[in-house]
């Protein structure tokens, strides 16, 4: 089964960002997308993750065109199967880190795993309010929140942008292990080429095309 496939995706804002983008994601596979600032990486990730409809092209998730399925079905897929880790964290600000995880756990009926908190080194700060956490701590809490819901597809936009190199590598290892163990897939947007090359495949967004470089 294909987790996700994109066909002939084109999109224009003030100027044409990209055209004829093709991409396939399988179970246990990780794909990195690199490219210059402003090339449209985040926009493409928004399209792939169903948040934005492209001018042209189709996205299929679990081999079904998302633009032809019912709203109800798409909503269910979003809620149960897609995990978004984006540049701004969307944590609930009035709550503690742990309460944020509890919400994810409640919605998905999945347990909050102690091991996950340990791996992400957030056990010590888990009772604190989100607004009292550092940028990197918030980033790790939002990763914990996403993984708590056990998604089939992870979309991550610079998920380790606020982290030091060692912590970033640790977090990436966690993502890869998660994909392997849960038969999930990941699409990662990053500026960091060495991080990108930890993924199974690497694509570059350049001259309005998505080109496979690994
Ligand atoms: N909602 C929007 N409306 C209009 N223009 C937009 C919108 N979102 C993005 N753009 C424009 O599209 C272009 C690509 O933006 P995008 O955020 O996709 O780039 P990026 O490759 O992710 O860059 P960075 O590496 O800096 O994050 C930019 O010129 C941006 O101004
Ligand atoms: Mg971006």
Shape: globular
Q: What is the CATH superfamily?
A: P-loop containing nucleotide triphosphate hydrolases
- Helical content band: 25-40%
Unreliable stretches (pLDDT < 50, length at least 5) are none
Q: Report the average pLDDT across residues.
A: 95
When the domains are counted, the total is 1
CATH class: Alpha Beta
Q: Topology as H/E string?
A: EEEHEEHEHHHEHEHEE
Q: Which fold name corresponds to the CATH topology?
A: Rossmann fold
How far is the first residue's CA from the last residue's CA? Answer: 22 Å
* CATH architecture label: 3-Layer(aba) Sandwich
Bound compounds, each kind once, are:
adenosine-5'-triphosphate, magnesium ion
Question: Mind summarizing the main beta sheet?
Answer: 6 strands, mixed
Please provide the count of β strands: 10
Bin the strand percentage: 25-35%
Using only C-alpha atoms, the radius of gyration works out to: 17 Å
Note the total helix count.
Answer: 7
| Structural class determined from secondary elements | alpha/beta
Strand order of the main beta sheet, please? 6-7-8-3-9-10
Word description of this protein:
It contains 7 helices and 10 strands. It is an alpha/beta fold and 214 residues long. Strands 6-7-8-3-9-10 form a 6-stranded mixed β-sheet, with helices on both faces. Strands 2-1-4-5 form a 4-stranded antiparallel β-sheet, covered by helices on one side. 34% of the residues lie in helices and 28% in strands. The relative contact order is 0.21. It has a single domain, classed as P-loop containing nucleotide triphosphate hydrolases (Rossmann fold). The site of adenosine-5'-triphosphate (ATP) has 11 residues, from α1.
């Amino acid at each position: 089964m294909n987790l996700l496939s994109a066909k002939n995706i084109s999109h224009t804002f003030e100027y044409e960002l990209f055209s004829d983008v093709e991409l396939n994601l399988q179970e246990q596979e990780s794909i990195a997308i690199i490219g210059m600032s402003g090339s449209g990486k985040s926009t493409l990730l928004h399209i792939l993750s169903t948040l934005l409809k492209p001018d042209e092209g189709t996205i299929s998730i679990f081999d079904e065109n998302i633009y032809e399925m019912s709203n109800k079905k798409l909503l269910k897929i979003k809620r149960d199967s897609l995990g978004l880790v984006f540049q701004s964290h969307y944590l609930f600000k009035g709550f503690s880190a742990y309460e944020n995880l509890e919400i994810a756990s409640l919605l998905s009926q999945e347990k909050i795993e102690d091991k996950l908190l340990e791996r992400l080194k957030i056990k010590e700060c888990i009772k604190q309010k989100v607004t009292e956490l550092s940028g990197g701590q918030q980033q790790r809490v939002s990763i914990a929140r996403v993984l708590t819901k056990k998604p089939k597809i992870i979309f991550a936009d610079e998920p380790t942008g606020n982290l030091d190199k060692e912590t970033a590598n640790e977090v990436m290892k966690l993502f890869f292990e998660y994909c392997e163990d849960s038969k999930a897939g990941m699409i990662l947007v990053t500026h960091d080429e060495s991080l990108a090359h930890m993924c199974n495949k690497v694509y570059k967004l350049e001259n309005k095309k998505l080109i496979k470089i690994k």
